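User: Teach me something about this protein's shape.
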Amino acid sequence: MTTAHAFTPGTPCWVDASSSDPAGSRDFYAGLLGWTYRMEADPQTGHYTYAVLDDLPVAGLSGIAAEPGQPVEWTVYLASANISYTASVVEQHGGQLLYGPVDIPEQGSMLIGGDPTGASIGFWQPVTSWVFHNQGPGTFSWAELNTWDGTVADEFFARIFGYRQRQIGDDTVDYTTWGLGDQTYIGRLQMGAGFPAETRPHWLAHFAIDPDIGIDAAAFRAVQLGGRIRVDPFDSGLGRISVIDDPLGATFALIDATRTVEPAGGPAAVDDPYDD
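Assistant: First, the predicted structure itself:
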């Protein structure tokens, strides 16, 4: 369990997705990840729903669909100590303010920004009572930025949060990890020729799967529930992973971090699943 007082600026502190079919989304993720739900009564929030495990919040689902022409997607939020300052730094270093900053009474302050490579990212300054459960199966496990310009993304986010960045890819894959102190929190993959040219830069939220179930069975379960396998299960230095589209098209990943392998490029090398 992670609470607000433990949030270091720059660390993932929440994930949520919009949905034009809230009931359908709830059923899909309940069947796949075991979530139950608490729904807010305020219609102005789109009856925002908190997904919970062990009575602790793990993610959000909104009944407000994306704007016309905008894709339905999962949003990763990075912790901010001062949302107004974060907004100014985002603009100063070439990013965009897409929504906010806005205060949400008794919960925190939110900003949706765009980095210079075109990926949208959330920033969240939570109140001290904010809880984000992110340990164990069914919870958020890893955030990864997929972008066409890794160098620009590395520089932009390092300027905002002072990340320690390390290249762990090999000669064919450009992959960096971003951390603070001795902890690593985020990955950045530069998309290559294996990605369709029309792929938008995006953040990919990874959710942990029980090793006793396994990624292959979980991916098959996602299909049974109406989802689609975007990337077949593959092994990497981060774990065994599969990329999934939910029934409404929001893309996320499933990960079993206990199933790490040592790729040919060395113990830290990363496989490019789109290059298979």
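Now, about its shape. The chain is about 15% helix and 40% strand. The first strand starts at residue 2 and ends at 3. If you'd like, I can walk through any region in more detail.
User: That's plenty for now, thanks!
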